[in-house]
């Protein structure tokens, strides 16, 4: 039995018709061409046979539209005693209709009675289902007869099912029951595409879905074209579709060809003009635009918006068909007319000029290049790439063509996420213009490919440093190529994380810039390279720059800004901008930058205690990295950030495997940061196990106690671990020296998290008589509670100190407070440690754990509170930037944990838990 995706409700309507004796006996399926009506008629025939019907099928065709009674010979097949059972007048009429006898042509009413009688005579053994396709092509006489049969099928064991593209005109007046077949829902359309074209990349799939608008025929035909060759896929990814094949042409071509020539001309202009403004069409084709469009509007091909300023096609495939029916010369003329009309819109003008141009054109190529840079600044990376490639193709000079191709290769490697195409584009550019091989622009592209695909840090570093020394524009702070190179080199230096003079080329190049380097470059160099030594003025500038992200849509600028914030704990303020980049990547846009944004988002969620969200971001990022071949991001996300959560939750095997993988990667690729990551995991794992001597050794491998070495930003992430381990292993002097180094560097001025850490470290390493006040000061720092894991660890350290000072009642408060957070995070080793501390104070343990055992996470609590105050799932989702389905999943889990069955009971349950837990 045939199944159709997304058509369960439509099939149910057909089943009701076939199985219901007392209900309707006729059904008219309507819907746009290609929506699947014929497929549903096939299913109708199959199901009718299952119900015991004899099925009679017929269909209208364009060739017989004007042939009277042409379809009836398929409906009433002569044979047996069918004719013999009819009365004389009916038999005579039917013989004439079927071309079996001579006589006057019967009227449609007479013919209708004859056909109905003939069909009824055949139902003595089996009921009959008459199934007719393409009613719109049936001749008028047959249409009258079939509508008569459909209206009078009741009482004759007869069912009538037919399909038509439109119910305007004759069929609209038949009053037959109608069922409109809608386009496929978005999710179903995507499922159809994925099942037929599993290798289609995300951006092409989304373009295809947008163009087809749920029309199954369009989805399948356009999908077949996109997988034809690389050029087809490249065009499809930018929304430029093929010349029409027959299935696509059959949808709307006949109606379009029937329009007046002037209407077709202005429809072509409208189809090529993405904005649809009538004012632009009026300039491109002077005359009465509205009156010229009227025939197309009457035929349901276009609509004029109520504002009277814009024309819209009723379906995207109409636009595609209009373009496909036009000859190449007609399209070029239309593009040229639109370019002239769009002289005040330089980017659109350039696009139309390019389409109108035959052969190389330096002026148009330059316009396209400028438009590409503007598109990138506006956050449309795919359009920027498309424009730059088109610019290169019509360049006159070989040097210009290759230079533009090099830029396109850089976009593909570090923005849109197509490393293979980036390598191919770069190779073609350098083959065409070998002099560019050692240029800084080509080196930047090559470095991105090496870094992203192979994580070959040493080679990328060597190439960039060598190219920088030869770059002619080394002093110009506005040189975009120079800035790209330096921002790339900053990331590479961070990844090397070990060479004593690694950062010297960056500092030398920045020192040459006159009058000074751009602010964002300085922020990245200091914030990502050596945040410990960032001066107060530059730190203030970080906050100003982050505050400007709300209006920044260039994904490159967003990513560079967030890089400057990683070690300064400003990622929470970057999250909305990072979400934009991630969404664009999910839509197939700036995929590579979306990976970087996922890293930043996961780091923020690690620090702020949203560990489940961090794991989800890690999983998404690793899948995306694997799909696109970005090894650089897969190890940062999967082997490090994801493993941090696993380590803190006591997943020892996962942690050990990740650390081993990172150590191996560091030795193979030259990525010293991977070794640092491994030491961090082992430090945290040792702390979790209570092996503080091992924790001290690994933390010291990242940063020697008593100093904060230059260009070692990751030292800021193990400050607490190092001091705690030193104190626990009787290395009091090393602990004090490290705290002194923090004080001299003004670590507490960098962020509330680092202020919390510094003050707590001072409390742990200082005299006992001042420790209590220092711990209290640390826990009272504004904004410190945001950093949940760090805050709970400080509470735990404070509790352990109080217990040692015999202040057991006070200690129990802090043990309990820390325990609540650790349970919410699922930090099992620290849960055990806090629980042991509580038992030692002989105090009651208060827990967020439910009766079934799983912990109530921080996100669970957040959702429960919002639900308790009356917010809907959708409202909660919008506030927390998650889907309403995810909210529902959380609540499904929360209810049994809290022992409630409704939202109304949530408030009381939460109050009860809150009242049980002492405040700190």
From TrEMBL:
What are the record keywords, sorted? ATP-binding, Nucleotide-binding
**What's the protein name?**
AAA family ATPase
SUPFAM superfamilies assigned to the protein according to its UniProt record, in alphabetical order:
C-terminal effector domain of the bipartite response regulators (SSF46894), P-loop containing nucleoside triphosphate hydrolases (SSF52540)
The Gene Ontology terms for molecular function here are: adenylate cyclase activity; ATP binding; DNA binding
Pfam families noted in UniProt: AAA_16 (PF13191), GerE (PF00196)
HTH luxR-type domain mapped to chain residues: 849-913
Task: Report the record's Gene Ontology biological process terms.
Answer: regulation of DNA-templated transcription
InterPro entries named among the record's database cross-references? AAA_16 (IPR041664), P-loop_NTPase (IPR027417), Sig_transdc_resp-reg_C-effctor (IPR016032), Tscrpt_reg_LuxR_C (IPR000792), WH-like_DNA-bd_sf (IPR036388)
Organism this protein belongs to: Mycolicibacterium hodleri
């Amino acid at each position: 039995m045939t199944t159709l995706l997304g058509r369960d409700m439509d099939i149910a309507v057909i089943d009701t018709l076939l199985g219901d004796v007392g209900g309707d006996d006729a059904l008219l399926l309507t819907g746009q061409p290609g929506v699947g009506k014929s497929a549903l008629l096939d299913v109708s025939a199959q199901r009718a046979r299952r119900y015991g019907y004899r099925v009679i099928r017929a269909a209208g065709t364009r060739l017989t539209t004007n042939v009277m009674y042409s379809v009836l010979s398929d409906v009433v097949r002569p044979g047996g005693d069918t004719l013999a059972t009819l009365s004389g007048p009916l038999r005579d009429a039917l013989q004439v209709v079927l071309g079996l006898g001579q006589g006057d042509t019967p009227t449609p009413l007479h013919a209708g009675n004859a056909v109905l009688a003939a069909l009824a005579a055949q139902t003595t053994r089996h009921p009959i289902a008459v199934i007719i396709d393409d009613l719109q092509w049936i001749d008028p006489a047959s249409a009258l007869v079939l509508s008569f049969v459909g209206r009078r099928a009741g009482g004759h064991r007869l069912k009538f099912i037919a399909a038509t593209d439109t119910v305007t005109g004759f069929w609209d007046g038949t009053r037959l029951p109608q069922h409109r077949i809608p386009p496929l829902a978005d999710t179903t359309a995507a499922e159809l595409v994925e099942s037929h074209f599993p290798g289609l990349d995300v951006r092409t799939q989304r373009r295809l879905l947008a163009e087809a608008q749920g029309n199954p025929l369009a989805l399948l035909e356009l999908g077949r074209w996109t997988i034809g060759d690389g050029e087809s896929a490249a065009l499809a990814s930018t929304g430029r579709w093929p010349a029409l094949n027959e299935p696509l042409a059959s949808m709307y071509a006949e109606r379009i060809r029937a329009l007046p020539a002037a209407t077709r001309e202005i429809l072509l202009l409208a189809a090529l003009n993405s904005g649809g403004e009538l004012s632009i069409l009026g300039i491109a084709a002077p005359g009465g635009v509205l009156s010229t469009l009227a025939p197309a509007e009457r035929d349901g091909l276009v609509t004029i918006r109520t504002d009277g300023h814009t024309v819209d096609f009723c379906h995207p495939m109409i636009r595609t068909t209009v373009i496909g029916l036009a000859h190449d010369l007609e399209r070029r003329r239309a593009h040229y007319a639109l370019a002239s009309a769009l002289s005040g819109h330089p980017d659109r003008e350039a696009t139309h000029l390019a389409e109108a141009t035959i052969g190389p054109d330096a002026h148009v190529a330059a316009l396209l290049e400028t438009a590409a840079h503007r598109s990138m600044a506006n956050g449309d990376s795919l359009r920027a790439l498309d424009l730059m490639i088109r610019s290169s193709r019509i360049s006159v000079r070989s040097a210009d063509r290759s230079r533009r191709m090099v830029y396109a290769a850089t976009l593909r490697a570090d923005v849109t996420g197509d490393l293979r195409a980036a390598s191919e584009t770069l190779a073609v550019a350098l083959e065409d213009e070998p002099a560019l091989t050692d240029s800084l622009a080509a080196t930047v592209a090559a470095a991105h490919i090496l870094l992203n695909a192979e994580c070959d840090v040493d080679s990328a570093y060597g190439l960039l440093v060598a190219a920088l020394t030869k770059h002619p524009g080394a002093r110009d702070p506005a040189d975009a190529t120079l800035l790209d190179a330096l921002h790339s080199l900053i990331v590479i230096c961070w990844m090397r994380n070990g060479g004593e003079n690694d950062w010297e080329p960056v500092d030398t190049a920045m020192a040459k810039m006159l009058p000074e380097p751009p602010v964002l470059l300085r922020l990245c160099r200091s914030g990502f390279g050596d945040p410990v030594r960032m001066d107060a003025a530059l730190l203030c500038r970080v906050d100003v720059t982050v505050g400007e992200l709300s209006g920044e849509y260039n994904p490159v600028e967003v990513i560079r800004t967030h890089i400057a914030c990683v070690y300064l704990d400003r990622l929470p303020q970057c999250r909305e901008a990072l979400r934009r980049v991630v969404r664009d990547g999910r839509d197939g846009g700036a995929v590579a930058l979306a990976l970087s944004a996922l890293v930043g988002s996961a780091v923020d969620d690690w620090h702020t205690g949203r560990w489940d969200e961090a794991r989800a971001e890690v999983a998404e990022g690793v899948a995306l990295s694997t799909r696109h071949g970005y090894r650089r991001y897969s190890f940062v996300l999967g082997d490090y950030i994801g493993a941090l959560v696993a380590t803190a939750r006591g997943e020892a095997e996962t942690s050990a495997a990740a650390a081993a993988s990172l150590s191996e990667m560091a030795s193979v690729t030259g990525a010293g940061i991977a070794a640092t990551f491994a030491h961090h995991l082992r430090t945290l794992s040792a702390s979790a196990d209570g092996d503080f001597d091992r924790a001290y050794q690994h933390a010291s491998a990242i940063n020697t106690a008593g100093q904060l070495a230059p260009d070692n930003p990751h030292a800021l992430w193990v400050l607490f671990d190092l001091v705690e381990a030193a104190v626990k292993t009787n290395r009091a002097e090393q602990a004090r020296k490290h705290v002194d180094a923090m004080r001299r560097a003004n670590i507490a001025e960098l962020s509330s998290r680092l202020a919390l850490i510094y003050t707590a470290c001072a409390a742990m390493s200082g005299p006992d008589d001042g420790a209590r006040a220092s711990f209290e000061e640390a826990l009272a720092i504004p904004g410190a509670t945001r950093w949940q894991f760090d805050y709970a660890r400080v509470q735990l350290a404070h509790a352990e100190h109080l217990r040692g000072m015999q202040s057991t009642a006070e200690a129990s408060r802090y043990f309990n407070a820390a325990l609540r957070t650790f349970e919410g995070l699922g930090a099992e080793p620290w849960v055990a440690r806090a629980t042991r501390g509580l038992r030692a104070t002989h105090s009651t343990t208060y827990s967020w754990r439910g009766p079934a055992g799983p912990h109530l996470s921080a996100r669970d609590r957040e959702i429960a509170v919002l639900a308790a105050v009356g917010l809907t799932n959708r409202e909660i989702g919008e506030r927390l930037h998650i889907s309403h389905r995810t909210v529902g999943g959380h609540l499904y889990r929360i209810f049994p944990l809290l022992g409630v069955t409704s939202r109304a009971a949530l408030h009381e349950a939460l109050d009860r838990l809150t009242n049980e837990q002492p405040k700190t």
